[in-house]
From TrEMBL:
Superkingdom field: Bacteria
Entry keyword Iron: yes
Annotated keywords: Heme, Iron, Metal-binding, Signal
This protein's name: Cytochrome c, class I
InterPro entries: Cyt_c-like_dom (IPR009056), Cyt_c-like_dom_sf (IPR036909)
Signal sequence extent: 1-21
Organism: Cupriavidus pinatubonensis (strain JMP 134 / LMG 1197) (Cupriavidus necator (strain JMP 134))
Length: 139
């Protein structure tokens, strides 16, 4: 009887792990799809942006922004994110795909729906000036 119970518990654990991995993969796929639909028009599929038009190379800029709490909030507050039709959960999924994909870093704390909700309503009047202030650069 004990062996049957142990097997049942092990089977349940394996199923839970596999299901959790599939859910995480689904969130990453949705994050990528939403990046393509909502961000890549300006930031381009590879994140290189259009610096001459004032759209920074996210591959270089995002790691600097992630170094501060204000920079992390900025990523949610930019008009393309804060004003998008995405839900807060979808924005978190997008960020959690985009940040490692464009920076190559896997050590980035994931965005949560609660964090997106907290920052999203604080809209920016002057995106370039706000970004420059966070990065310590001129516009």
């Amino acid at each position: 009887m004990q062996r049957a119970a142990i097997r049942l518990v092990l089977a349940w654990l394996v199923t839970a792990v596999v299901a959790g991995a599939a859910q995480a993969e689904g969130r990453l796929e949705r994050g990528h799809a939403n990046y393509v639909l909502h961000c890549s028009g300006c930031h381009l599929p590879d994140g290189s942006g259009k610096p001459a038009a004032g759209i920074p190379d996210m591959r270089a800029t995002v790691p600097q922004l992630l170094a501060t709490a204000a920079g992390r909030a900025f990523l949610i507050q930019v008009p393309g994110t804060s004003g998008s039709s995405l839900t807060n959960a979808e924005v978190a999924e997008l960020m959690n795909w985009m940040l490692p994909a464009l920076t190559g870093r896997q050590d980035i704390a994931p965005f949560t729906t609660e964090e997106v909700t907290r920052y999203r309503n604080d809209r920016l009047d002057d995106v370039a000036a706000h970004r420059a202030a966070i990065l310590g650069t001129s516009r």
